[in-house]
């Protein structure tokens, strides 16, 4: 079974990162690299990207509504609420699954305090257009580049357009650390207040526990162990293809824990390889695009060429999401079914039909850079063999709970 996601670090990276973390706190060097890459002078390392969003809002300090897409990670509106703001969901564009400048403009009521220009699934939104839409207003523009490290808009790196930006180093993102994320800004006033908000954060840890989790994540996706990992996934979570997810209303403990030393070292180890990482993902995406294009019942997204995604996964629209999922399972390919919800539903907001339809139809093919050529070929061929409506009844099919 080919895993849906695998960490981008190698065992050699882990060993080297342990060495680095023993000697020094690599956070300082990592911050300098990220600052240079994005042309943002202030970089804060945080426990996760969601905490970066939380800290940006707390630092902005003007509670109000935050505009964000309904097709998004549930932890984002949660962070908005934790920070004392309220989400204002906007529907996404059918082709690219991004929030458009026109939709943002329409949502800009006087109580809107911030806009999250979200590069969901690593697909850049039209952040320049969104920036124009908020120009001249007292609105904080934050780029949610959690999944989009290195993605570009008209050649310019995302995370460099807004008042602030966040990046995630979670296991499924462009560069995986143990966990962690970064909050970037080029504004001195904002940086000053972010520092205050993050003051309770504990100093970075470099414990055995961080090493154990990174090692476990790596092992969990190795060919021998993955079948067990996959069974565990299925046992713990339902294989629902669409659901209404309940948001958490309480800030979890450890939210402000900070980025671990091991994570900083792991990300620093991999940052020189970012161009190769992205090039590999793009070449995989091109293969999948060609494979999916001719298959009835499947379609790639339509993303304008000026937006270069980071391809944390390759989204495919499947008329029969559960059917395509089961087909790929039988072919030995695990695919991602996120986001399998619309945040608008979670917060009891009417509307946002495109987000809802996207949640019910989009699956992600694996596109992490450690996939071998043979695995990529296997995934592409498996997708090509899909026959909508027939595949679901093949003999010897394993039982799968349909959504
Ligand atoms: C993954 C993701 C997040 C959350 O990142 P964490 O580091 O897990 O908090 C937020 N927004 C988007 C668009 C994401 O893809």
From TrEMBL:
Keyword Nucleus: no
Pfam families (UniProt xref): DegT_DnrJ_EryC1
Keyword terms: Pyridoxal phosphate
Signal peptide: none
InterPro entries registered for this protein in UniProt: DegT/StrS_aminotransferase, PyrdxlP-dep_Trfase, PyrdxlP-dep_Trfase_major, PyrdxlP-dep_Trfase_small
UniProt family annotation: Belongs to the DegT/DnrJ/EryC1 family.
Protein name, as recorded: DegT/DnrJ/EryC1/StrS aminotransferase
Lineage: Bacteria, Pseudomonadati, Myxococcota, Myxococcia, Myxococcales
């Amino acid at each position: 079974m080919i895993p849906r996601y695998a960490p981008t670090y190698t065992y050699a990276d882990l060993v080297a990162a342990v060495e680095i973390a023993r000697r020094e706190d690599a956070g300082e060097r990592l911050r300098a690299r990220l600052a240079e890459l994005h042309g943002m002078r202030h970089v804060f390392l945080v426990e996760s990207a969601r905490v970066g969003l939380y800290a940006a809002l707390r630092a902005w300090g003007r509670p109000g509504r935050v505009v964000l897409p309904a097709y998004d990670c549930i932890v984002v509106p949660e962070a908005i609420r934790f920070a004392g703001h309220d989400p204002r969901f906007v529907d996404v564009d059918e082709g690219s699954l991004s929030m458009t400048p026109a939709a943002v403009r329409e949502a800009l009521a006087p109580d809107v305090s911030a806009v999250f220009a979200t590069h969901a699934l690593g697909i850049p939104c039209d952040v320049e257009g969104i920036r124009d839409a908020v120009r001249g207003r007292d609105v904080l523009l934050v780029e949610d580049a959690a999944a989009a490290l290195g993605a570009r808009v008209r050649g310019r790196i995302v995370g460099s357009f807004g008042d602030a930006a966040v990046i995630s180093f979670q296991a499924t993102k462009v560069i995986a650390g143990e966990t962690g994320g970064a909050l970037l800004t080029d504004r001195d006033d904002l940086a000053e207040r972010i520092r205050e908000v993050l003051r309770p954060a504990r100093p970075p840890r470099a414990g055995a526990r961080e090493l154990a989790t990174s090692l476990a994540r790596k092992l969990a996706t190795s060919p021998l162990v993955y079948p067990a990992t996959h069974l565990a996934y299925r046992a713990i979570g339902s294989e629902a293809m669409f659901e209404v997810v309940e948001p958490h209303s309480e800030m979890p403990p450890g939210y402000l824990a900070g980025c671990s030393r091991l994570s900083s070292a792991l990300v620093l180890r991999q940052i020189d390889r970012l161009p190769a990482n992205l090039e590999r993902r793009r070449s995989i995406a091109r293969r999948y695009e060609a494979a999916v294009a001719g298959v009835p019942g499947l379609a790639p997204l339509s993303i304008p060429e000026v937006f270069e995604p980071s391809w944390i996964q390759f989204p495919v629209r499947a008329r029969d999401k559960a059917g395509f999922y089961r087909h790929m399972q039988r072919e030995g390919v695990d695919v991602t079914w996120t986001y399998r919800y619309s945040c608008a539903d979670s917060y009891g907001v009417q509307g946002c039909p495109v987000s809802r339809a996207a949640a019910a139809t989009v699956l992600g093919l694996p596109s992490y850079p450690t996939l071998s050529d043979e695995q990529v070929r296997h995934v592409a061929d498996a997708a090509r063999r899909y026959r909508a409506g027939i595949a679901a009844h093949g003999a010897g099919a394993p039982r799968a709970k349909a959504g």
